[in-house]
Amino acid sequence: MTILVTGGAGFIGSQLIEKLLLQNHKIICLDNFDDYYDPLIKRKNIERANLEKGYRLIIGDIRDVSVLNSCFKCNKIDVVVHLAARAGVRPSIQQPELYYDVNVIGTLRLLEAMHASGVKKLVFGSSSSVYGNNTKVPFSESDPVDNPISPYAATKKVGELLCHTYYHLYGFDVFCLRFFTAYGPRQRPEMAIHKFAKNIMDNEPITMFGDGSTMRDYTFVDDIVQGIVSSIHKVNGYEIINLGESNTIMLAKLISLLEEKLGKKAIVNKLPEQLGDVKLTNADITKAKKMIAYNPKTSIEEGLSAFVQWFLHERGIQ
User: Fold this and answer.
1) What's this model's pTM, rounded to 2 decimal places?
2) Which partner from 28, 139, 196, 295 sits 20 to 30 angstroms from 54, CA to CA?
3) Domain 2-183+218-246+281-296 falls in which CATH fold?
4) How many CB atoms neighbour CB 58 within 10 A?
5) So which residues are the catalytic ones?
């Protein structure tokens, strides 16, 4: 099977690609190496994949029609995994037009390129942020998601709707996977766990928005990858599927666990709650277990240990 992975040099994409290469799939990685964070980190992410015969890197933007058309024309692609996106809730409040352009227009152009080339199988990386401040817990795929509270969340909701449109019009098979706060080795440097770990080790204050009572369903990257791989093999019809651990941890407790794993105390700077941040995420994964045999195995303690081991190795400490 030949699989196109957009955003394949990123945190989740690069680890997905390594897993798929082990299964002897041919992989095309499309990434534009933008400067949202240091492109050299993404280059390092794909060093292992670069050594594999079944791997090909295309440097390009999902908004570039000529890049997309060439990609599909020159390769017989069976499935697309669409992970390329402008990420992050808070930056989307400052740059809503950019987020709309990349996440909505880019997704639309990818769908059009797929349609033009006759490729009809897609796994789309969505986000738990679409649930907004959902009051029903845990969050189920059947819950209404009509009230996003950040531009990022709104673009992911639009992406799901565009996918449904192409399912309806052209018979695409699409699984929209709502990721719940992925973390682990290679996590992006601006994400909470990575940023907190850096600040603790550098004796710099952690910025904690609110009183530390916000809760997240943190999902270890290996479990996310397992869910994506299973979706690639099972994608059929149009489905929205949660990928989470179905466990929550309070922010204050997360910081305490990180202190324990790093063997250092954090300096905590408390600030008011941040616009666009949700108070709670918690995934109902009943559908994922049933439809794609999703089976998350990694507790937050185990996942943080794996992250810290990677983090310290990257800093030359271990």
Assistant:
1) 0.95
2) 295
3) Rossmann fold (3.40.50)
4) 18
5) 152
